[in-house]
Fold these 2 entries.
Entry 1:
Amino acid sequence: MRLIKQTGWVGVALALAWLTGCGGSSSSDDTTASSAGGNAYVAVPEANAVASYRVSSGSGNLKAVLGSPFSGGTSPISIAVHPSGKFVYTANQGGGDVSLYTVNSNTGALTEVLPRTVSGLNPTSLALSSGGDLLFVANQTSNTISAFTVSSSNGTLTEAAGSPFATGSRPVALTLSPSGKFLYVASANLPQVFGYTVTSGTGALQVIPGSPFTVGNGPTSLAITPSEHFLYVTNFIDNTVSGLSIDPTSGVLTEALDSPFVTGTGPIAVTVDPMGRYLYVTNIGSNNVSAYTIDATTGATTALTSPFAAGTRPVSATVDPAGAFLYVCNQSSKNITKFQINQETGGLPSNTISATTNLAPQAIVFAK
Amino acid sequence: MKDLPAVALPLLQLKRHVLLERLPGMAAAVLLLLLAIGAASPLAAQEMPRVQVFGGYSYTRFDTPSFGFANTTGLNGYTFSPAYNIMRGFGVMAELSGQYKTGANLRDVAGGPQFLYARGNMLFSAHLLFGEARSLVQVGGPQEDSARVVSFGGGLDYSISPRFAVRAFQVDYVHTALFNTTQDNLRFSTGLVYRWGTIKKTHRTLAPNP
């Protein structure tokens, strides 16, 4: 009898000790950084939905929120999050429209606001200004750019005067400079990038003198450094990435020193880290990521000891706002690879599968 | 009242007189009743109840960040748990518990051993329960799941009469495995315990010297 009682209390004590004695040790490394946490959203075209994740502070791991993915437009292929974190937008390739989602800050759930906003035919890329007041959409079949003003209160879109604006044949990607002054559009059919100045507040576009600018064959993706000094363009057919300097006044593009730079096979997406130090290119043909340092003066890139193996058919890449991790969406693997970024070299020394999406992920964005 | 010290009886009579003079009749009667119950001999020291039935209010801090919420979610509800004590200090208990809020709830049915320690009018308890939990959360539509639950906790009962005790508090760590992840939930309960039967402490008697 006494033994049973004693055993019971020992069990209680052990359980208490287990509960309170948790925690392990962690080592710090000067070459690594930590995630700031927050939210991430992934466009999943096959599901006609957007997946919502919580990003673990520190580790940067993705955890799907309950109820994810959240249904929306047909084949969302490009995604952007409003700087307030309250709204998410997708360009729906199959629907010819743009979806607006509101974000529940507590649950992380997305709720689509209907009706959707009509854009042109086959919208493939969208870009949101850093202030969240303008949204641009590249319409691949219409050969146009749709421009919208964004309501700060409810995120709704209103088409700008003069929109849609004509652009080159098959615009597949566009990017907006951090200041919002310039918009650049890659034309898949032409070895060219079209440049526009943006009228603040209205979103009206004016062609930059000298546009379009010559790049390599099959441009598929663009990225601008945070300093707004350089633009990089992946040339899918040439297996290169072009670097161009941006005139801060006119927006005119001039090819950078030693451009173009060699990539892996089928460079399909390019991204720059938030500090403008490193450039990453996903190569869908060779299933890897090419990494480069960026010369802040010339814009020339130096390839690191790369490429770094990714999943099967890596289709896009995004660096988190803290610059700690690179996330690559792998179409055929149906997962997202998270690479730790070496803060001193820009290399990708380790990677893990951060999320399995069950259907092909197309693009990931992070709320700041 | 037969076991009260002699000095207590006049004091009790004095209190009764004051209450009847100064308070409405019904309130005074209730107070007198409570006083009589409290002054009556509670569960005698060193005695344990054979059967306990607890019912009361529960608050659960639901570990909703485990499946993506930014914050934990507070739920309010009830716990009902009968227990049968096999011997002094050891018994088995069952639990039926449910806490709710608009858009979320957590319910469980569990059972397992409990351990008791009596000291004066107080009865300390600890238990380890195993069972099943169910939850419904409204996120983009109703999300429902059921999974195992392991609950570990303890409480304090204070005797107010031979039949009743107040469970001043019961705190439970409730571990669930809902929605393809695990939750570390915390539950606080308080309420009333109904008891019957006693397990008396046996006293050894020494054999007289030859």
Entry 2:
Amino acid sequence: MKVFVVGLNHKIADLDVREKLAFQGDKLEKGLTQFRELSGIEEAMIVSTCNRVELYANIQDTRQATESVKSFLAEFHNINRDSLDKSLYIYDDIQAVKHIFRVAASLDSMVLGEPQILGQLKDAFELALARKTTGILLNKLMKKAISVAKRVRTETKIAENAVSISFAAVELAKKIFTDLTKRVFMLLGAGEMAELAAKHLISNGVKEVLVSNRTYDRACDLAMEFNGRAVKFDEFIQEMAGTDIMICSTGAPHYILTKAQMQKVMKERKQRQVFIIDISVPRNIDPAINDLENVYLYNVDDLQGVVDSNMFERQKEAEKAEGIIAEELETFLKWQASLDSVPTIIALREKAEEIRKEEIDKLFSKIQDLGQKEKEAIEYMATAIMNKLIHPPTAALKGDTENKEMLVAAIRRLYGINGEKHEE
Amino acid sequence: MGVLLFELALTCYFAAALIGITELFKDSKTTAKIALLSAITGFAIHTISITYRYITAGHIPITNPHEATSFFAWCIVLIFFILQYRYKISLLSSFIMPIVFLLMLVSSTLSREIKPLSPSLQSYWLGIHTVFAFLGNAAFALAFGIGMMYLVQERYVKTKNLGSLFGRLPSLQTLDEINYRLISFGFPMLTLAIITGAIWAETAWGNYWNWDPRETWSLITWFIYAIVLHARLVAGWRGKRAALLSMIGFLTIIIAFFGVKLLKKGLHVFL
């Protein structure tokens, strides 16, 4: 009984390879059923996302499992089996468990700490549960992986700071203004990045959206899209008195907002804080206006700088996360080892012995005037009862049953033998 | 008994200040909780200690430097809790509790002897005047802390170098607004303290205003905060300027409070 992983991710395989091996739509269920039925595969689960395809299993023999899974993949996806050798990673036992924990905690993701992977993993697990393709080992493993991921999320700051330019802009806006829903936002110009950042800001809720563009029709179109108000281009400076956040991205080859103009605007708005994001290249807003009090001007490089330092922070946090994973790996392995019958037999006997001794001591200290003979008789009887009670479970554990792990787990639970603390 | 209570409160505040400062370097929710808990415990013991002294002395215990400084600290913690409850500002204790601890430390070095009240202090104005004065000063102390937080956060955003406290410090606007509210509360308190002080002075010494150093410095403080409020409304002096001015204002309070006492001159000698 050991955990087994075969898979590929964005690091080792290009998109076209990942596409070929993906289990999309109904392929997933079909693939899962076939995978489970392979010889040597006792439990099975498939995770298929745009960045990774992974097959998890409970197996006995790694070599045999590897062969059958490779053949299965080649056949199922109708690709050359030899081409698979290069583009797959294979882990078993400890390495496999560790890998799954790292995937769940988003340490193996393209964007470190991104949260989607955990949801995708949960979905894959739910499907496996519904199709009953998993058993005691993978069920426990997945539950543990999910709890590890949550622990990493709460105990480290791996998912905390924005790692894309548009999110970084929103994050900054939130640290300048108390409540974005009371702020007026203006989009000046257009462009993919500017519109994306605008969408993120608007989805956080702003009070009003203004859109201005050199071509008024374009402004009207965008205003419709963002549910805002179009402003004529030569009037945008007037509107700035009431604007708190502005994203600027026009194709102008020169500055369209100078320091002197901004100074006037600030006077009009009684120096209330204003956040300006200049996405245009070349820049459209005089960088010197950042020197004005209560004006915060960021250009693309500034935002990229924020993203880079956040990414660096995440990498530092990832080290902490690895520590948590190492810890949890150990508890999982302990649990897995406890499924072995021998330690359970010993633990059961110890437990019974402990109870027997406790009760005898209690009795003897209560009744002081017992003779040596009586004492011996009582001891003998207690031992006999104990042995008779633990004999059947011990015999069952020693015997050859099919679902040994299940039996071990059941006995540990029924007799309250702790291999590991219960979670949740 | 009274001494023990005071020392206990001092210890709790010390713990809160120390944990608050470590919180600046290490982000942890438990640390923040422990800091707040120490402050709450300290405040509870401090309250008992002041009440105990009130009962033992038989009059409001704000009649000598030890008592006054201790009461000042007590007011700061009180307003700190109100702010914490209302705005849930993380890191506030890191900026406030060290001030509280320092005040208590100074208080602990001053004479704790309970002397009979001099005739000029035996007036109901004593309670009214001092409570107004210290509530106002406490609000300004908080504004000082909030102002510091503003300057740190504003520096991060302005220089585009988001430091380690960026995520935990509140937004600039929030800090600016709290600063404004604190001063809007502190200013009328200070005004009332000056007015009640003048009335009391008239009844005690026959003169509304005697230009003793404490009075002069209070007037300077009053002008500084008047400028903060006025410039904000009229010229839009907010943000960094307001934060800086409110910090300067608090420094004058400290000068008025301790500097004047070191000189040991003037009518306020008993405080």
